[in-house]
Fold:
Amino acid sequence: MPNEGHRILKRKIKVINIGIPTFVESLRKQGVEVIEVDWKPPAGGDEELLRILEKLKCGP
Amino acid sequence: MEKAAYRKLDPEDIEKANQKAVMNMIESEAYLVDIQPAIKVIPGFKYDLITHAGPPIEWDRMAKVQKVAIINAALAEGLADSPEKAEKLIKRNEILIAPNHDYNLVSGMCGATAASFPVLVIKDPIHENTAFVWQQTDITAFGDKFEKGISEINFVKEVLAPVIRGTIKEMGNKINIKEIMALGLQMGDELHSRFDATLGIFLLKISSAMLSTGFSKEELKKVVEYFVTSHGGKWYPGNLTMGACKVMTMSAENIKMSTIVTVMSRNGVEFGIRVSGLGKRWFTGPAGRVTGFTFPGYTHDDAAPDIGDSAIIETRGLGCMTIAASPSQSRFLGGLQEAIKHVKDMYRITVGRDPMFRIPTMDFSEAPVGIDIRKVLELNIVPKITTGMAHKEGGHSIIGAGVAEAPIEAFKKAIIAFAREYL
Structure:
């Protein structure tokens, strides 16, 4: 029995892509509407730097 | 790796320190007050000293083009009578080398500066700071051939500096550089790689005083021709802007607990930064590749990595930080829309806005001020620098222009040092 996921993919979808730009290219080639969000992991994902930044927290 | 134990720190203290640093930079002024030999006005400068752009670096690791420029400066100064002799003396520490920034001095590209070179003296009377600039010349900035370029050094010493000195005197011993920069920014100059408008404004402001100095028609004609026909002359406002930005960023130095960048500078091997709350310590990463355009006969492979003290302009929040102000220079980033996006990214990594410097193409938005190392790392967004290209071997003048990125490694090292200092 098809699940909700299958039903969603049969409809026209719009995608929000966060980060890796190559996903955007392949989706657009298939005619899928994509909104690109420019995002990278804070401190490149470095745990030591993340701990430091947490202690030195920037304001909003 | 064992996890470091960090104490609790009130981030409010950092915010207050950063606000002080940024307000100091915004409130500071920049007046051209004199032009004199470096040995006469720079505290601590020595006769056997050649200073250079960028963070400190040992001779053996130095970029070839910077070595050529330093040797050119030594020859121009009469410290040696051949390049081979100059290099021997440098290796034996009989000619000393040190960063320009150690002396509150800045100079573009290789930035080689010697004792007798006439330096612009830029003062900020608000915070009582003084900065110095040795102007870009082909042999000391680009490592061009000594025989070809020594006449420019002699011209600066014998004609240009005396005329500029006389002009400054005629103008009450101070010329407001910050005001000239603000006008130029609103007329299509981003204040690092394009100064067409700023040069015109500068010449307009000084012309009456210059004509009143009493120098001969011939000498004054040579000075005007220098400004309008030579590389060094056309980029002259760049020297003034560098000095102004240096004196303004000096007001943000040594503020305890501040994470604001006070210096960015490159030596063609390393890109170094200094941070307000960490004093005069350098934090470095590899100097990046300059991408842009090259002049006919050159390719990107000929270019030296990013080099020069001119990144002090971006440190102050101008140059590539406000690149959208210059439609022509926006092409370095792909066009005006990309340049606007870049400026918006710079807003995200800075703490303040400067109401005196506005970007007409962004509805007169204010220039970003105060690069915060925390935000650079949190958002993974680094500053970019608009810059010229030097030939990696030396022996040429400018070979192109473009944009280079600051290395994230420098900011990582700085935040770790900040944590060790304050946490």
In short: The interface with chain B takes residues 40-44, 46, 48-49, 51-53, 55-59 of chain A (CB under 8 Å). Residues 21-29 of chain A form the longest helix (9 residues). Chain A has a mean pLDDT of 82. Residues 44 and 52 of chain A are 13 Å apart (CA to CA).
